[in-house]
Amino acid sequence: MTADKGLPELDPVIHAQARLRVVAALNVLGEGDEMTFGSLKDLLGMTAGNLSVHLTKLEEAEYVRITKTHKGRTPVTYVALTRRGRLAFEDYTRAIRALLDPTGGTP
Predict the structure, then answer these.
(1) Beta bridge partners of 8
(2) Whether 82 contacts 63, CB under 8 Å
(3) What tens digit of pLDDT does each residue of 6-56 get?
(4) Could you give the 3-state DSSP secondary structure of residue 14?
(5) Own/partner pairs for 54-59, CB < 8 Å, 24+ apart?
(6) Which of 28, 33, 43, 58 could form a disulfide with 63 if both were Cys (CB 3.0 to 4.6 A apart)?
(7) What pLDDT shows up at residue 32?
(8) Which of 76, 51, 78, 52 is nearest to 65 (CA)?
(9) Buried b (16+ CB within 10 A) or exposed e, 56-67
(10) Whole-angstrom Cα distance, residue 30 to residue 14?
(11) Does pLDDT of 1 surpass 60?
């Protein structure tokens, strides 16, 4: 998608700094791999409440999948980037590159 003057449009769901960090962290995992909520929280240095709010936005956009389960008696929440989320992140990074270098790297 493009905005006025032919500049690429940035996905507002991903563009928020915290959500961009979440998606970038999950994108490093292999497709179908997941990370525990606690590990993601620690990796990003976010509070549980803040991370939860941003994951809810990403989940509503179907960019992440949240799976709640138990390990023994302990509840565990897993977070994974969906295929849709992975494609949205690829589009977002392509749009950022186009904004930074509108010539496409050609002199």
Answers:
(1) 2
(2) yes
(3) 778 899 999 999 999 999 999 999 988 999 999 999 999 999 999 999 999
(4) helix
(5) 54/16, 54/18, 54/19, 54/22, 55/22, 55/79, 57/13, 57/16, 57/19, 58/13, 58/19, 58/22, 58/23, 58/85
(6) 58
(7) 85
(8) 78
(9) ebbeebebbbee
(10) 19
(11) no
